[in-house]
Amino acid sequence: MNNVISLVWLIPVLPLAGFLVCGLLRRHLSKSLTGVIGSGVILASFILSLLIFGQVRQEGFQAVVVRLFDFISVGKLSISFAFQVDPLSALFLLIITGVGFLIHVYSTAYMHEETAPDFARYFAYLNLFVFSMLLLVLGSNYVIMFIGWEGVGLCSYLLIGYWFKNIEYGAAARKAFIMNRIGDLGFLIAIFWMISQFGTTNFIEIFTKAAMPKAVSTGVLTGITLLLFVGATGKSAQIPLYTWLPDAMAGPTPVSALIHAATMVTAGIYMIARSNILYTLAPVTQTVVAVIGLATALLAATIALKQNDIKKVLAYSTVSQLGYMFLGLGVGAYTGAVFHVMTHAFFKALLFLGAGSVIHAMHHEQDIRKMGGLKKHLFWTHLTFLIACLAIAGIPPFAGFFSKDEILSAAYEKNPVYYAVGVFTALLTAFYMFRLYATTFLGKFRGTHEQAHHLHESPSAMVIPLVVLAVLSVVAGFVGIPAAIAPDAHWLGHFLAPVFEGSTRLHPAAEADKKLEWGLMGISVGVAALGMIYAWSRFSRKPDLEEAQGFGKVLADKWYVDELYDAIIVKPINALGRFFNSFVEKSVIDGIVNGVGRLVQYGGRQIRLLQSGLVGGYVLLMVIGILALFLVELFTKK
Amino acid sequence: MGTTQVLFWFLSVLALISAIMVVVSKNPVHSVLWLIFVFFAISGHYILLNAQFLAIVNLIVYAGAIMVLFLFVIMLMNLNADTEPQKNKWLKIAGVVAGGSLLLVLVAALKHADMKNQLADMGSGDIGLIRNLGLTLFNDYMIPFEITSVLFLSAIVGAVVIGKKD
Amino acid sequence: MNAIIISAVWGIVMMFSGIFTRNKTSIRYLAIAGLIVLFLANILDLQGHHFFPVHTANMLFFDTFGLLANAILFGATLLYFLLSARDIENVGVKPTDPESVKAGVNTAEYFALIFFVLCGASLVTTFNTLLMLFLGIEIISIPLYILTGSDKRNLKSNEAALKYFLMGSFSTGLMLLGIAFLYGASSQGSFFIDEVAAGRAAISPLFIVGLLLLLVSMAFKVSAAPFHFWTPDVYDGAPAVFTSFMATIVKAAVFIGFIRLFGESFGPTQVKWQLFVAIITAATLFIGNLTAVFQQSVKRMLAYSSIAQAGFMLFAILSLGEIAKQGILLYAAAYSVATIGIFAVLIKMKDHSLEGFNGLAKHHPVLAFTSTIFLLSLAGIPLTGGFFAKYYMLLSVVQTHQFLWLVIFGVICAAVSVYYYFRVIQAMYFKEGEPQTLEIPAGFNGLLILLAIIIILLGIFPQWLLNQLSDIIYL
Amino acid sequence: MIPVLLIVIPLVSGLVGFLIRNEKTARSWSLFAAVVTLFVSLSGLILHKEDAFLSADVAWLPAMGSRFSVALDGMGQVLCLLTAISFPIIFIATWRTPYKNARNFYALMLLSQAGLMGVFLAMDALLFYFFWELALIPVYFLCSIWGGEKRIAASFKFFVYTFLGSIVMLVGILWLYSHTPDHSFSLKSFYALRDKVTGHDQLWLFWLFFIAFAIKMPIFPLHTWQPDAYEQSPTATTMVLSAVMVKMGLLGLLRWLAPVLPLGTWAWGDTVSMFCIIGMIYASLVAMQQDDLKRLVAYSSIAHMGLMCLAVFATTQLGMQGVMIQLFNHGINILGLWIVVELIERQFHTRKMSELGGLAQKAPVLAILLVVVALANVALPLTNAFIGEFLMFSGVYASAVTRYNVVFTVTAGISIILSAVYTLNMIQKVFFGNTNTLTEKAKDLYPNEKFVLIVIVVLIVLIGVYPKPVLDLTKETVDTLLTKMATATK
Amino acid sequence: MPINYYIFLSVALFCIGVSGVLTRRNAIIIFMCVELMLNAVNLLLVAFSKMHHHAQAATNPNAGIDGQLFVFFIMVVAAAEVSVGLAIIVMMYRNTHSIDVNFLNRLKN
């Protein structure tokens, strides 16, 4: 049985091979061949992942660590290049390779306008991304995870800046990379701390040591987990490091779907879920995670209300949904968070791909104010988009409902305020999603004639992934049916239980009060439906086309957070740099160095004057010299 | 205070005054003449110290030969008081002060010397006689004596090289 | 003794050679031959073959140190003759007067004077009484006054000679006063260097005064600050070819005498005067290096650099050990060879200013390359003899475990010295220009390369010289 | 035997190079010599691991207690390999750059290689000092003759700076020498002094040495020679300077300072670390403001060297291993950056980023290779620099000799972010965006340039993925070093 | 006579000589002042010579004779110096018609 698992290294290596082939031979491959290779390797990985998933599902499966080679081995610290196969990683493997494969297929059609080398470059990047992401989830220690962690950041950078001729895209890419790096620094320091605390970076060893009673002080754990969380805020776009994600929409839309919705941004959730035991042992951090997550969810939702770029709305919705997931993590609903990751991967990828399809049809128009009435022209796109909207709004029985509900009910148990804010955010979510839906697909077409003329449904390579994802968005929720509906039907919970075993042992889940659960479910569904209906009815008739005013403008301008960062961080740093460069470096440090040189020259010029050319002067100076020596003699004698 | 003492003081004062006059005289010829006075005074001291040979040599070589040479050159150049332009007053003062300070410092350094009991033999002892000096000179001091010939040769060569008109 | 007598005799021979021949080439060859004889005789002396068993009444003491010093001095003079003897013949020559161009002016006399100087130098390296030191220094000085003024129609030369003479005789006065006090302080009434500092004399104020005055006058002769003022003017004013001689062989000889005097007679009372030497050393390093920085004339810059180098050599006086003695010989050798070389190049330049060297590398690569080696050696860069010279000086002081401040100060000054030496290198290599040179005789380049090789050999294997020197450890 | 060859081959071939008349022959000859040196170095690494091959000891100056003693230890292996690899790469990369008087140029380059090898191999303090200066002189001439507009002033500043440092170090060497009981300059005798030199003496002796090394590395605020020298030197020389020569400072620190004066090192650790960190942040901030590519890389190098120095003073196994591997990595990476700069400068006769742009369209291969090198410069995982920086940072964090380890790690960590800022800026400005009139006619790489850059990229990735061989190589060195440093601190 | 008197007398003469060198510009007079200094030394040497003789006459009848011989040599040297010195001064006079030492100051700085 372990035969398949020992082949786990193939899962990341295949995309890597795809990357190398596409990247090195990009001038020699035709587009179709590139597409086949690029998607094929992911498909192969997906199949392998399925096989492994099959193994993992079996009863009594124990986490397996597949050691490849010694990566860094210094003294007592030994970091091996090893993969860990357990339910959590197996689940993520499926999501990544599965959604990844669909998006690759989608891309073959979406990117067909590119020249062959650029096309190959795109697929190379995409494959590299999948490789990194797989490293991230497969790594059996924090260092391997970190490798993947930074790798996905790099790919994100490369893909956002894919159209490198456009300087603004480049700037967005840079912003993404740098903000990620800030988070990564936190992650790194956490790793250093763990190394000095535990002497290892292996998950299993660290979790075992940490779980031992009184082995590690809570303070240390709080520190480590907070630092890890800093890393997570960078990667998963949480306050305060979330501003890169909306800008990242500069990349091709499939990229946004894959990286900035389905997979990479959930790395933070994966990491915390992976380290759940540490977080459970550090309640302070948990609170921080919950609060930050909730705040992000709310903030992003408010901003999404007033965005007019189709991708921007989706981006803020992603940030907001990620906030939900962190809320789930913060309140200890690890399964719920992972569940939401999964469902979100499906419906958000679907949303983005749908948006891509729209943009494709609209010839790269992204402003929803210039759309409308697309329902007639893009049947499949419209249908799948609607399903996704329903899913994200939390309407049963779509996938989003189950996962969101699980998080919200856990939040209620922890603190009803969390719940209240969460539900409010759900209202906003339903509202802005349907604002988007209604403005885009309902009403009259508001674009140019030319656009209207060319409107058409996308090719099948794009539609099929949409349909597959739509199906998944509908059915995925049933793997996690809450106990209130059907006891013991939470298949995902059972599946992941070994991963969260340590945490559940410390904080056993309270017996759910069925009535309460039903009540909560009712409230959230009702609220979501309210928002949905209101938005539908309002925007299908009279879309919101004017420039926002007053408070709306604040929201449209994203609470001016970017401007704030610019003013308090970027500008001062630049000013400091300029000050160093033009003043300290040239005038102070070099000034001192050159000053010494000049002083020597000046001294030389002055001392030269002693050499007056007059014998009398020379003799006088000599006599003074003698006098000086005698005076020294007279004074040192005493 | 015996005769020798009187003579000592007389010669000392004479030497000092003449030396000062050498320095302060405006006319170079006067300076030469005052210098000759100094030499005489010093020769007197030599005699007091019973160094007759040196006293004679001093008069012959210094007062006789060297000073005449000086005088001769001065006459040749037709120098008089006016030919020396006035030196900067401050430099002059500085020179005097420096010289005086040197004296002070030297005296200060030497005054602790416990030499009260050390006497310079006067009138007695015959090491200064020609015979004794000559004997030592041509025995132990043979080498330096010969070596001085090199000195003279080079001086001669030098005077020729420099003085020759070409 | 061989050296003293032969050099004196050969000086006389040279003096008379001018009467018998007007052919300056034969005079030159005669001089070179004499020097070779002198050098060999000295080597034989070193190996125990004394030609003249003269009774010196212990006034001269021929130890290995002194004789080795002589060998170095004579060797350096030989190199000097080979490189620059032709230029000696041209001193004071009127280009309009064909007779003087053919025969030179006073050529024979110049060579004679140089031999007399060598005689004085060998006295200074082997003296055993203050009298011999005094005579030696005078025999060195008097011919130098003349050589300085030998370019008679040149007012600079006149001025230099006058200044040198006046200040030189003034310092002679100081030295004599010092000797007189030392004599007064000595218990036996003797001028022997091992006796002047013996017994109760050492604590007498007379002794201190005498020592200080002697120190001052020796400092004057080696151009240590603040008694160095004559040096730049004299070196600048004198004909370059004689400056070369003065700055190297003469200075080295006086240094040998200096260390001999202070080592032998004042060694036991080192604590009393070390501070003064340290002050003088510091002042010399400071003034020499700093003043050299701003010079525009290479000749004058080298004059100041010779002051700076003297500062380093003073380290040997300060520490007075076995290392110091070895070091001063090595220093003398390395410094003399390098300076002779650089002066030989300088003499060939029409323009002695820094600009005159611009672009030399392009037109005369050998001159430029060898000059670079010489300058690097003077700056004390490793792989040249100058490095080990400085190395020994520094080590000798460091080993006393005192005066570390002075060592640090010294090395900082060495870094400053890099500035002015490298300005010449920069001019030669990195700047464009059309340097004007005199006619460069055949073989001159070869000799320069020989000098450069000696410098580099000294810089890699100071051992072959040091093997000789190690014998003098327990003098 | 091998160490001697490593010094002698470049030395002799350099001297011979002066005599070759034909420029092309001189070029080929130098490349040949450099490749031979590389093979010798590799053979020391792979074939002949016996001590007999890896060290040589010949009497040199017996009376002075100095011997021509050279040996290859782990650190030496790494640095010699770096030197040996760098020179062929430099020669190939600059194959098309015209130098007037090429024979002299290449000959001087080889001489500097000999000097560098000597520094890395010398086991005798005097010999070390010798080579230290020997490496300097050819580089001085290289900068001054073939450099840019302000070359004379810049190279002179460089020379005086380093000369001053080294001669101060000489005083320190002499002081130690004069205290050795056997009057010897050998490294062993110096190590034996450790317990004899009092803590008080170590306090000031430390600076005599450290200033020389700090100037070479360079450590803030002694760094101002560096940007000027890098900017003005011909790029081939800049490569030598930054890839190999700055390592002299670290080697000095690791071999001649830390184990010899452990108390001094320990006592001044915090002070020096502080300067290192200030320098890292400072240099990164200044680098962000640069428009000139060479200056940018120069400041980035200052930041990186600061980290390495910091890690040395942390005195941990992790950190030391990181430094060891980074010695090599930093050289390789910066070499790659310089090659790119050189190619750009040769093609467009400018190094101003503001005048460039859009190169990725015209020269995609160059762009890709540069991106990899740049990523290594920001220490992205799976590049070699990550291994080094990861180990160094964890070493600093785990440091037991300072109370401020956390502060150090965090503040130094900021430079990780800043390095990303300026490196990405550079990529952005040079390669992305649209072409302008200058870059319109840009050409991609010639085969030789492609070859060296690919070699560099392969090395970057190879070591980034599988650093074990390099780590194993220096394991022993690190262990001895730490023992030497540790026993005295107790 | 106590030796102190001689010491102070000689030092005084010497310093007068030094002052002369410092204050005068006439080369010949400066040179004469140097001669004065030498004479002061001579006197001192003779005095010391007699002092040593006084102290040691009992053991060594020739004690102190070195001092007087030294004086002799000083006189010899002085004579040689004078010949050279005056030659130089004359040469200068021939070229510049002045013997002012400050007249020639081309060499400076």
Describe this protein's structure.
The complex is a heteropentamer of chains A (638), B (166), C (475), D (490) and E (109). Chain A is mainly alpha-helical and 638 residues long. Chain A is built from 27 helices and two strands. Chain A folds into two domains: 141-556, no CATH class; 566-636, no CATH class. In chain A, strands 1-2 form a two-stranded antiparallel sheet. With 475 residues, chain C is mainly α. Chain C has one domain. The model of chain C has no long low-confidence stretch (mean pLDDT 88). With 490 residues, chain D is mainly α. Chain D has a domain at 268-490. In chain D, 76% of the residues lie in helices and 3% in strands. Chain D has helices at residues 2-17, 23-46, 51-54, 74-93, 102-121, 125-146, 151-179, 187-192, 199-216, 225-232, 235-257, 262-288, 293-314, 317-348, 359-362, 364-377, 384-398, 405-431, 447-465, 468-489, and strands spanning 55-61, 66-71. In chain D, helix 4 (74-93) runs antiparallel to helix 19 (447-465), helix 10 (225-232) packs antiparallel against helix 11 (235-257) and helix 12 packs antiparallel against helix 13. The mean pLDDT of chain D is 88. Chain E is built from three helices and no strands. Chain E is mainly α and 109 residues long. The chains are: A mainly alpha (638), B mainly alpha (166), C mainly alpha (475), D mainly alpha (490), E mainly alpha (109). The interface between B and E is large, with 83 and 76 residues.
Task: Write the topology of this structure.
The complex is a heteropentamer of chains A (638), B (166), C (475), D (490) and E (109).
Chain A: H1 2-6, H2 10-24, H3 31-57, E1 64-74, E2 77-85, H4 87-110, H5 116-138, H6 142-160, H7 167-198, H8 203-211, H9 218-235, H10 244-247, H11 253-262, H12 267-274, H13 276-281, H14 283-304, H15 310-330, H16 334-361, H17 379-393, H18 399-414, H19 416-441, H20 449-454, H21 460-475, H22 491-496, H23 501-506, H24 514-541, H25 550-556, H26 561-608, H27 615-637
Antiparallel strand pairs in A: 1-2
Helix pairs in contact in A: 2-3, 2-5, 3-4, 3-5, 4-5, 4-11, 4-16, 4-21, 5-6, 6-7, 7-9, 9-12, 9-14, 11-16, 14-15, 14-19, 15-16, 15-18, 15-19, 16-17, 16-18, 16-21, 17-19, 17-21, 18-19, 18-24, 19-24
Chain C: H1 2-20, H2 24-46, H3 64-89, H4 98-103, H5 107-126, H6 130-148, H7 155-185, H8 193-196, H9 205-221, H10 230-237, H11 240-264, H12 270-293, H13 298-319, H14 322-348, H15 360-363, H16 365-379, H17 385-399, H18 404-430, H19 444-460, H20 463-469
Chain D: H1 2-17, H2 23-46, H3 51-54, E1 55-61, E2 66-71, H4 74-93, H5 102-121, H6 125-146, H7 151-179, H8 187-192, H9 199-216, H10 225-232, H11 235-257, H12 262-288, H13 293-314, H14 317-348, H15 359-362, H16 364-377, H17 384-398, H18 405-431, H19 447-465, H20 468-489
Antiparallel strand pairs in D: 1-2
Helix pairs in contact in D: 1-2, 1-5, 2-4, 2-5, 4-5, 4-11, 4-14, 4-19, 4-20, 5-6, 5-11, 6-7, 6-11, 7-9, 7-10, 9-11, 9-12, 10-11, 10-13, 11-13, 11-14, 12-13, 12-18, 12-20, 13-14, 13-17, 13-18, 14-16, 14-17, 14-19, 14-20, 16-18, 16-19, 17-18, 17-19
